Amino acid sequence: MLAVPLAISLALNAAAPDPAGLELDATAAARVAFADVCLKAVAEGRPAAELAQAKGLESVTPTALGATANDKAWKAGAGRPAYVVAWPDGGCTAMVDRGDAAALGAMARAAILARPEGFRAGVSALYDGERVQRSIYCAERNGRWTVASITVPGPKGDGRTRALSASAYSRPTPSNLCQPG
User: Fold this and answer.
1) What is the distance between the alpha carbons of residues 21 and 141, in angstroms, rounded to a whole number?
2) What is the DSSP letter of 136?
3) Strands, sheet with 164-171, edge to edge from the N-terminal-most edge strand
4) Cα(178)–Cα(130) distance, integer angstroms
5) What is the DSSP-derived secondary structure letter of residue 24?
6) Could you list the pLDDT tens digit for every one of the 181 residues in the chain?
7) What single DSSP character describes residue 157?
């Protein structure tokens, strides 16, 4: 008789959402952190905290991620988690320390280009002695500009370079970074 309650329990647990994203790989965790929380919050003018809570992300100490005490931070995933840092000004960054940088960058690019705002490519270049590659995407909607950036290791990236840092912020005017160069 123990088999029936055990089977029901397993079925119920299997159907339940994984609130902290513990089973997500680095790319899936980054998709939640960037596409579902950061980018969505900024592009739609919604609170990142509301979106992070809706996705079941775990609140973490922002200073442990190099952010300030005024920022808010959450974690998605376990083994190779992604982190969200929401800034007081409404901007947001999603970060992954380790993972397939090419897959992470492609995921972030696809998330940006899939948005209804019509993001267009801006400046893309190597920085910090070719340690990182940063690509900018911009969109204007209702008189506000949303700027999204994707930063991945460049040809001279080292073990300290994050696999992905993707940010989004809003501003009243276009950024010079929005002009392809």
Assistant:
1) 32
2) E
3) 58-60, 72-76, 82-86, 92-96, 164-171, 144-153, 132-141, 120-127
4) 21
5) -
6) 434 333 333 333 333 344 444 457 899 999 999 999 999 999 999 999 999 999 999 999 888 888 888 999 999 988 888 999 999 999 999 999 999 999 999 999 999 999 999 999 999 999 999 999 999 999 998 889 999 999 999 999 988 889 999 999 999 998 999 987 6
7) -
Start-to-end Cα distance in the chain: 69
pTM greater than the 0.90 cutoff = no
Backbone angles phi, psi at 72, to 5 degrees: -120, 145
B/e letters for 43-63, b = 16+ CB within 10 Å, e = fewer, are beeeebbebbeebebbebebe
- Residue 95 in tokens: 């970060």
Q: How far apart are CA 120 and CA 81, in angstroms?
A: 28
Q: Check residue 139 and give left, alpha or beta (phi > 0: left; psi -120 to 50: alpha).
A: beta
DSSP, residue by residue, 41-108: HHHHT--HHHHHHHTTPEEE-GGGGT--TTSEEEEE-SSS-EEEEE-TTS-EEEEESSS-HHHHHHHH
